[in-house]
Amino acid sequence: MELNSSSTGPVTIRAFIERHGGEGWTEPSVRWAIFKGAENGLDASGAIVRVGRRIRIDEQAFFSWLREQSTAA
Questions:
Q1: Long-range contacts of 4-11 (CB under 8 A, 24+ apart)
Q2: DSSP letter at 13?
Q3: How far is CA 1 from the centre of its chain?
Q4: Kind of pairing, strands 54-57 and 48-51?
Q5: pTM of the shown model
Q6: Is 37 domain-assigned?
Q7: What is the pLDDT of residues 16-69, one digit of tens each?
Q8: In 3-state terms, what secondary structure has residue 31?
Q9: Alpha helices in 36-72 (DSSP H)
Q10: What is the tally of structural domains in the chain?
Q11: Which of 53, 26, 52, 48 is nearest to 37 (CA)?
């Protein structure tokens, strides 16, 4: 999983899927991780940016969180 270096800030869920869908991420899997964010540590990681009902993903923080998950197991 490599972060796209052209990323300038948090992206929408759909933009995230367009960039990383080939790595196995689907819209339902990302939304489920966000829904369970309080339980899985995603909320605390700072990877999810909420503005009202809109959700953006900070890709760098998301992949840092993901790496922490793989080492925690």
A1: 4/59, 7/59, 7/60, 9/56, 9/58, 10/49, 10/56, 10/57, 10/58, 10/59, 11/56, 11/57, 11/59
A2: H
A3: 12
A4: antiparallel
A5: 0.80
A6: yes
A7: 999 998 888 999 999 999 999 999 999 999 999 999 999 999 999 999 999 998
A8: helix
A9: 37-40, 42-45, 59-72
A10: 1
A11: 48
* 21: in domain: yes
Please give the angle made by the CA atoms of 55, 3 and 54, to the nearest 5 degrees.
5
Query: Quick one: tokens of 23?
Result: 């790595």
Domain limits for position 27: 11-72
Q: Report which of 55, 39, 19 is spatially closest to residue 65, judged by C-alpha positions.
A: 39
Spatial CB neighbours of 7, under 8 Å, sequence gap ≥ 6: 59, 60
Within a domain: 29: yes
Distance of CA 23 to the CA centre of its chain: 13
